[in-house]
Amino acid sequence: MRSLELLAHESARIGTVDSGSRSFIASDPENNVVYVAFEDTSSCIRISVNGIAPDDPSVFVELARIPVEKQQPNVSNIVGFTYLSDQQVACLAARNGDIMLISKERFDNGEEAVEIVGGVDAGLCAMEWSPDQDLVILVTDMSGSSNTVDVGAKNVLEMTQDFDTITEFPLHVEEEGEGVQHSVGWGKKETQFHGTAGKQAALNKVDTSKFTVSEDDDQNPRIAWRGDGSFFVCSDIDPRKSARVARIYNREGVLQNTSEPVDQLEHVLDWRPSGNLIVSSQRLPHRHDIVFIERNGLRHGEFTLREKSKHRLLEVSWNADSTVLAVWLETENPTTGKPQKTVQLWTSNNYYWYMKQHIVCTDGSDIVGFNWDVETPLCAHITSNSGHYHRYAFAWDVLTSTSVSEDNAGYVAVIDGASVLLTPFSYQNVPPPMSALSVTANNNVQQVAFGPVSSGTNLAVVTNDAIQLFEVPVNGRGEIKQLGTFTLPKLSEDSTTHSVLRHLCWIAENKIAYVQYDEQEEGDMLYLAHLSEGEVNVLSTSLLGKRVGRLYYNTSYSDLIVEAMDGTVNRVTVLDDNNVELSNILTFPSFSPWIATTRVDQNSENPEFVVIGLTERGKLYGNDRLLSGECTSFFLRNDWLALTTTSHTARFLPLEAKYDDFKLSDNTPDAHDESYRRVERGAKIVLATQGKPSLILQMPRGNLETVSPRAFVLAQIREDLKNLSYRSAFIACRRNRIDLNVLYDENPKLFYENIPRFIEQVPEVDYLNLFLSNLRDIDTTKTLYRHGDQDNQGDTRAENKVNTICKAFRDVLMEKGRDQYIQSILSTYVKSNPPDLESALQLLADIKEQNANDAEEALKYTIFLCDADSLYDVALGMYNFSLVLMVAQQAQKDPREYLPFLQELQKLEKFYQRFRIDDHLKRYASALKNLSRAGDERFEELVDYMRKHALYLVALEEYANKPEQKKVILEVYGDYLVESNKHDEAGIVYQLCNQTIKALNAYRSAGAWREVFSLAKQLQYTAEDLQGLAYDVIEHLKDKNRYQEAAVVAVDYGKDIEEAVDCLLKGNHWQEAARVSRTHERSDLIETHIDPGLYEGYTQIEEDIDSLLGQFNKQKNRLKELRETKPDPEANLPHDETLDNIDMFSDTTSMYSQFTRYTQATSRISSVSSISSKASRKTSKLRRKEQRKRERGKKGTVYEEEYLVNSLRKLYERANNMQNDLRDLLRALVPFGYIEEARAMQVKFAKFLADLKTALPDIFVPLQLAAGKYASLEEIEALKNPVDVEKPKIADVDWTLQLLA
Would the pLDDT of 612 be above 70? Predict the structure, then answer.
């Protein structure tokens, strides 16, 4: 889909050239110097070169003039001319046998430029250097005649670059070479397929002895090397066969193969640099073919030239990268009727040959010299017989309209000779070489420019002598209208330009702009012209000063810019007087053959003007900003910049972004990045349609692929949703497999408010079912379809989303008609979370009463949506046997599985029947309720069922008004609570059923001493029994550390003051112990119990403080040491670039999908599931083991820091709790005379608390937690960033005594 566009052209005068002889061109790419060797009218070989004149490098200067004797009439005396890079000289071989070296360096030093290094007495017919210039092949004429053209004996001479002979052998031999094909008895012609020729073709015998030489053959041999220099081919007329034969030799000069006989094979010859084909030509009575020969000598296809008039071929030549074949021929000029030598450029794609350019000298002169540049593939050097040198620089370009309007038809024009192949990709995709339309010009087309209309349906077709305007139908169907033909200005004899019109831009209805090279000004001129009355009338000309590589016009923004070959970009402003004004915009770092203009930050009031430029090296610039260093193609859409890269990806930049954000993200794209897409290797963008979210890519082999990038599709969907065009958004989601949840998630409030509008626009039941069945309680704008570079963070759940939408849809659909939308209504029930299958079945039951057939159809759909067994169970739970049977039948359940059970149920009484159904469905609460209604005779069964399923509260509710049964249930419930160690509740339950003794025992086990003694009094316990009960309760309370309550029981019920004091001392209630002793006149206990206990408590707390202090200092210092010596994670494992961009899965890796359950591979899946289950159990065990390691925090492990922080947090909490204990202790110590001990303890603990508060900000800092070996991906992702550590708080408690300060 690409055409050759002429980027740059320059010409210069070289001298008078003999029109009857050929000129030879050799280029020095290192110094950008061109050598031209030609014959003048006086039979002198003249050699000119440019780059010598310091003030004007383009001017040619004559290096040498060599007089020679004409060997043959109308035959050039030059047989070969090549520039040798190693020796910095040009080598010329003359037909008389002389071999000369021409040195520019010697000429600069004032010496003779020409040096004859040798000669062949017999004369030379051809010379060709190998690609590496280490060898040269010469063909010598051994006939000895110099006056007539003789096709007698010829020798091939192989020499080194120093012209030392390696080998010499005759050209015409009978042998066919070492690689000749031998028949092994199969693959005969008779057994092969002959296409339309039929089987008769197998019987036709070809008499090769009648093959002749073409009348256009110049009778001279040709030599061509393969690109790698390992083989060369010689073509000459074999006198034994009277036909031209091509022989293939290896680098040592050993004959490998001989071409198969080809009738009227002509002299032209070249070997494709890529090495696969040798090209020549064949003249047939009805056509003229360019034929291809393989290295083994066999034919390999051809294509036919399109010349209808008399013509003959001169030469064929491949360019450096094997993409373009130049066919140099002499043909009849359609305007003058005289023969003219021109060059056609052909290229192949998708097995079709296109003629992309036809180079014709505008002054009517002949092209007498043609040569491709040895390094720049699309650069050609040409000389004409008018004495001019031309340099053409081409580039591959997609010819399409620059309009970004949505009504742009997306036409792409492909030049093919006199035809322009057109396809509107907005409406159809026609694979090349076919096309939707074809426009035929009156001559071969040189370039195509689209008109200024937004639809892109007007185009200007430029030929060598005219501009033709056409209007094509928008959708590619209809008639093509020719708007006019305008003749290009004729060149006068004193004209200073011999160049062609290039870079045509159709900027207004009847106004064009183009560029042309002017020899006198030695620069490019910008022409502004008016189209009227069949002529191109120039309005103004402006010297651009520099060589121009691009003139670009943007139809939508009316931007006209010009780019020079040095990367300078100027804006062209057309003034009212039709003059132009140039203003510099920017300068690219290097020339960008492909440029375009757009606006970035389009939603702002002042969008940024941006020039996009792509260099030949793959660097894509947006103004002076490098957007990509690996770009292969790009295209501007109305809201996106699309580009492809050498890493086989397509990237998309939104034009609505701020200019500062207009760049590719450095982050590695994930699977849900809409700005990233993988494409086939070597794919390039043809165009992106403006009105549709389509991107057309062309593969290297030429085929097209239309894709819908997620970026384009989502942008269109969001715009449709914003405009409430729900049908368009829905169809786009369905066509491009976009999750339909996005219709709601983009703007939930707007969608909910417009659900009736959505149903009106999408009334199809199937579409509504599809939407409802895809609903999920997930916000897709935070997962699959994030906006821009938005991170996948935060809660992705959308609470109650599905239920809300289903309820709203159901209400609207019910109003519109239940029968019409029954499937969608059922979908809303089934899709609810949890599925409301009972309501769905109730609806089916209602329908069944009206129309059984409709109910069955609706049931079939319901079974499709959900599990049939679940639906069967729900129907059974509705106690509707007719509905159960209908579900079972439609679900195709085996009658042997359900009929016996249903028959058994039908024999039972109503409520006992329901009990059995609920029990079968494991609805135990409902089963118990139905069993309670089945009669008192089933009460014992109810008690057993209640005990089995722990349904005590349900039973109590059912028997609330039946005292006798309620007591039984309460007693059983109390026993259950006792077994469950809920003794306090059990005591209450026992009291309700008048089981006082059980209640007392339950309260005693619960430690509820008040209730125990209350019930003991109620049971009339004796004083002795109460005292024994008291001691039992005291021991239970002491075990639970409830010392103060134990003391109360000892005083009130045990009457044991000493035991009470002992309990208080154990609970550190010092002052209460003293009060009890004095209250009950037991002052002796102060000396015997309280004083020693107080000192013991002082000693214990002091030891605790010392222990905490030692632990604090040790762990704080270790933590500081650990953090200071902690290694940098990046230092341990330096970045290895060789591990980047490694695909973990191959292209053929398959994953299980949601549809796997419908396949037959159940055993394989269950096997995989089993293996996965075993692996999960093993991993779970290892994770628990690793968690224990984390909790231990062994020194030197990755978990040590986390362990130390957690341990210090517990220390802080313990110290905080000690404040209250210390306050009570200090207030008890002082009255008992322990003043110094209390003071020391107060000082020590106060300092300890101060140290804790000081170290708090240093200890509890954000912590980088280590991920375990068996951590999940989510856990690893969560631990990438440091985790904030909650700082413990030290309460402000007034625990000190001022007396001790």
Answer: yes
